[in-house]
Every structure is written in structure tokens, then in C-alpha cells.
Specification:
The chain has about 325 residues and is α/β, with parallel strands linked by helices. It has helices spanning about 5-20, 35, 85-95, 115-130, 145-155, 180-195, 200-215, 220-230, 235-245, 265-275, 280-290, 310-315, 315-325; strands spanning about 55-60, 60-65, 70-75, 100-105, 140, 160-165, 260-265, 300-305.
């Protein structure tokens, strides 16, 4: 498959993913039947989270600290996600590291985000590093959280000790050749669409997203969707729009710290996205490397089989990859 064909396949997959999750110009999904919605809440394997040692806010961002010794790790969930996305990582790393888990405004039941939420979150991570005098923290981000990790590493190149991005990139895949005007127009359409979603429609969109893009197991997908749907649709819309407009690639060369990008790979999805032309693990890793071009100390590693929430599909592999990366610092 040539590069142009691959970019088209990725763009189509990106649009499909955004549509499924309600992050596009697609009309909101129909609300579920009221009788079904009225039944007693179901148990949720991801809902019980580990109690932090400390909880505080910076610029509306909730920060939960676990552990109190060792190098600081800052865990940043992705779009519409909360600390529930990082429970395995907290268990694995809090005995030996000081782990700060963030929940952004508007996500996971937090109060709605204000104007320019992505820029606010970017500043909040910087303030966390400054106010807590964190020594060379490693920022671990998923999806949008990975993008934020790159942004902060560009803002504070001398203070960030490393970056791990789980399916997070400096530019939205498939949009890397969009001119600025087209990128801004796409962002406006995304925001307008999601802002109109009712809570019921948003919940249905989250379920569709988790089942097709989020994770491989349908039971886990439904549990995760019930959690992600606690987020504020208008806030999610604004974050998605901000992310669409962002292109951090010019600043990657200024990041001196080591960078690890974990690229989830699921062969069945890859075949479907490419129109039955198989996208191999190597092809996907090489594509991610092109989006990270110019990063001085870059590693790209695939995690398979896994969908977007690789830390849910393959927690042991993701934790092992992060642990190996930390040992090199």
C-alpha cells in the first residue's frame, strides 16, 4: 500500500471513529428507549477507583496523587475519560513512583469546561510541575492526553523528563495535510454537532464508539461507555474541536526528553480500514513515525491485539512497555 492510499485509509478510519463517538458532523444517535434507561444501574467493573492519598485542583483540573516516593508520573486520560482509565497503572506504579492522575474539566462528571479548554489543561499541567516542584516528571497520556503531553514537553523542555503517548499524537491522524483554514472549518463542524447532542444521544454515541474503536471486548466496551457518557457533551465538543485545530509537529524537535509512542494494533480493524488491504503492524508504526518526524529521541512500539484503549485491552503489555521505558531514563 503506498503512502497516499494509507493516508486516505487512516483519514477514513479517523472520520469513522469521530462519527461513532459523536466527535463529528454526524447527526446524534437516537436516544435509548426510556423504559430501558429507567432500569436499576448495572454493576461496572471499572467504576470502583483507588482512593488517592491527596486530591486537589489546578485551573479546574482535578489532580489525584497516589504514592509519595520516587520519580513523579503524570497520567492524563483522553477525551471524555477519567481516572478509571488508569487503575491498572496506578496499582503497578504507585509503590515506586509518585503518581498524579488528572481529570480534565467537563470529563467524568466534572463541572463543564470553560473557553479554550485544551489551552487551559496545557497550562494546568505546567502549573502542576511548577507548584509541586516536580523533578523531571514523566507525562503519560492517552489519546488527547498524549497530545497534551507533547504540548507540555514543548512548553517546558528542560523540566519534562519523558513522554509516553498511548495512541496520542501531535496532530490528528489523517488530517496532517489539511491547510489551516480547512482544519478550522472541520473544528467548527465538530463543535456544532456535538454541542447539540442530548445526554441520551451522547450515551448512545459513546457506546457505539467503545464497541467499534475503543476496546475489543463488548462487555468492557459497554462498561466504559457508561463511564465516558458521564462527561459533558459540550465540553467534549470543544476539546475535540481544539484538538482538530492543533498541530504540534513543528515543536517536536525542541523536546530533548525521550519519547515513547505506543500504537495499538488490531488486525481485523486494520483490514477493514484499508478496504481489505491489510495494514501491518510495521506499516502502522512507520506511519506514526512520520507524524513524529523530527523528535530527537523517539521510540514507537505497537501493542497488539488492542484497540484505542490499549491499557484496557492489554494492561500487562502497556505496563511492561512503560516500565521498560522508565528504566532507561
Amino acid at each position: 500500500m503506498n503512502n497516499k492510499a494509507f493516508r486516505i485509509a487512516v483519514l477514513a478510519a479517523t472520520v469513522s471513529a469521530i462519527s461513532a463517538s459523536g466527535h463529528s458532523i454526524a447527526a446524534p444517535a437516537p436516544a435509548p428507549n426510556a423504559a430501558v434507561a429507567a432500569v436499576a444501574p448495572q454493576s461496572n467493573r471499572f467504576a470502583a477507583t483507588i482512593a488517592p492519598a491527596e486530591r486537589f485542583e489546578i485551573r479546574g483540573v482535578l489532580v489525584e496523587r497516589h504514592g509519595g516516593k520516587g520519580r513523579p508520573l503524570i497520567l492524563v486520560p483522553g477525551l471524555a475519560s477519567g481516572s478509571w482509565a488508569w487503575q491498572d497503572a496506578i496499582r503497578a506504579f504507585s509503590p515506586d513512583y509518585t503518581v498524579y492522575v488528572l481529570t480534565l474539566p467537563g470529563f467524568d462528571g466534572r463541572p463543564a469546561a470553560g473557553p479554550n479548554p485544551l489551552a487551559n489543561a496545557r497550562a494546568a499541567v505546567g502549573e502542576l510541575i511548577e507548584s509541586r516542584h516536580l523533578d523531571k516528571p514523566v507525562i503519560v497520556g492517552h489519546s488527547l492526553g498524549g497530545t497534551l503531553a507533547f504540548a507540555v514537553a514543548e512548553d517546558k523542555p528542560a523540566q519534562v523528563g519523558g513522554v509516553v503517548a498511548i495512541d496520542g499524537l501531535p496532530v490528528m491522524p489523517g488530517t496532517e495535510e489539511m491547510p489551516p483554514a480547512a482544519r478550522a472549518q472541520a473544528a467548527q463542524r465538530i463543535q456544532a454537532s456535538l454541542a447539540r447532542a442530548t445526554p441520551e444521544a451522547f450515551a448512545a454515541q459513546q457506546k457505539a464508539y467503545m464497541r467499534t474503536i475503543g476496546v475489543m471486548d463488548m462487555g468492557k466496551a459497554d462498561d466504559l461507555a457508561r463511564l465516558s457518557s458521564r462527561s459533558d457533551p459540550a465540553s467534549v465538543a470543544q476539546y475535540a474541536a481544539d484538538d482538530t485545530q492543533l498541530d504540534l509537529r513543528p515543536g517536536l524537535k525542541t523536546i530533548p526528553a525521550p519519547v515513547l509512542v505506543l500504537a495499538p494494533y488490531f488486525d481485523l480493524d486494520s483490514a477493514a480500514q484499508a478496504g481489505q488491504q491489510q495494514i501491518t503492524e510495521t506499516v502502522k508504526a512507520d506511519y506514526y513515525k512520520t507524524l513524529m518526524d523530527g523528535t530527537p529521541r523517539l521510540q514507537v512500539q505497537t501493542i497488539a491485539p488492542a484497540r484505542h484503549f490499549a491499557m484496557i485491552d492489554q494492561p500487562e503489555k502497556v505496563i511492561a512497555a512503560i516500565r521498560a521505558f522508565l528504566k532507561t531514563l
